[in-house]
Amino acid sequence: MARPRRQSTFQGQRLRSARLELGLSQADLAQRLQVHRATLIRWESNLSAPTPEQEEQLSSVLSRGRSWFQQTLPEPPPRPSVELGLSTDEKLEILLSRVGRIEKRLEHLTELMSQWLAAR
Question: Strand, coil or helix: what is 83?
């Protein structure tokens, strides 16, 4: 049976933000903290929270105060709608350019998959 989550105000997205800012992978940080990578994933996903001792380790490794991990990240400002003030033709042009980019990505992925399968 799963243990109940410890009551905490720890913000996993703060941990992820600090880790990425320092260019650390989850595996790198987990190794430095001597925890399993899955533990770090659960912390970043807010599925569990580090103990106070582990929070101290995080603070030290990531050069952040413990209280920094308790604060929520500010919401990004809303992006203005691209569609404001555009004619139907302009909207269609935007959509077609997006579809074109998606098609190029799919072609590239298909090519990579073919190369990978051929190498097997």
Answer: coil
What's the pLDDT at 26?
Answer: 92
In this predicted model, what pLDDT tens digit does every residue of 35-82 receive, in sequence order?
999 999 999 998 999 999 999 999 999 999 888 888 876 766 776 655
Picking from 7, 86, 18, the residue whose alpha carbon sits closest to that of residue 48 is 7
Nearest to 94 by CA among 81, 76, 79: 81
Q: What's the CATH code, domain 12-70?
A: 1.10.260.40
Question: Which ranges constitute the DSSP H helices of 1-120?
Answer: 12-21, 26-33, 37-44, 52-62, 88-119
What count of residues does the chain have?
A: 120
